[in-house]
Design goal:
Blueprint (H helix, E strand, L loop, with lengths): L2 E5 L2 E4 L4 E8 L5 E9 L6 E6 L5 E3 L7 E6 L4 E6 L8 E9 L2 E4 L3 E6 L1
Parallel strand pairs: 2-11
Antiparallel strand pairs: 1-3, 3-8, 4-5, 4-9, 5-6, 7-8, 9-10, 9-11
C-alpha cells in the first residue's frame, strides 16, 4: 500500500519560513510528477508547485520567487521551501504524486501565517 506522509506545517509570522516534506512509502515502481496543492477555507484546492521526474518545475504566479520545490528521487521525497510567507499563504497543504501509474494524495498539513 503506497502512502504519502507530509510533515513540516505549522504557525509562522508573516515574513517567516517553513519547509514541507512529503515522503512516499510502500512498493514503488515509478514516480512521475510530484507536487504541492493548498486549500484555504471556503476556496478550491489550487496547485502551488510541481516537479516532474525530469526536473521540470512549475509554480503558481503568487509564489514565484518565494517558494522552491525540490525532490530527492532516491528517497521518494518532495520538498517545498516557503520563504517570505504571507497571510494569504494560509491553508492546508497537500502533497500529490503520480506514481505506479496512479494518483496519490497526502493527508494534508496545516500552514498558518499570522499578520
Amino acid at each position: 500500500q503506497v502512502q504519502l506522509v507530509e510533515s513540516g506545517g505549522g504557525l509562522v509570522q508573516a515574513g517567516g519560513s517553513l519547509r514541507l516534506s512529503c515522503a512516499a512509502s510502500g512498493t514503488i515502481f515509478s514516480i512521475n510528477a510530484m507536487g504541492w496543492y493548498r486549500q484555504a477555507p471556503g476556496k478550491q484546492r489550487e496547485l502551488v508547485a510541481s516537479i516532474t521526474s525530469g526536473g521540470s518545475i512549475n509554480y503558481r504566479d503568487s509564489v514565484k520567487g518565494r517558494f522552491t520545490i525540490s525532490r530527492d528521487n532516491a528517497k521518494s521525497t518532495v520538498y517545498l521551501q516557503m520563504n517570505s510567507l504571507k497571510p494569504e499563504d494560509t491553508g492546508v497543504y497537500y502533497c500529490n504524486a503520480f506514481l505506479n501509474w496512479s494518483d496519490y494524495w497526502g493527508q494534508g498539513t496545516q500552514v498558518t501565517v499570522s499578520s
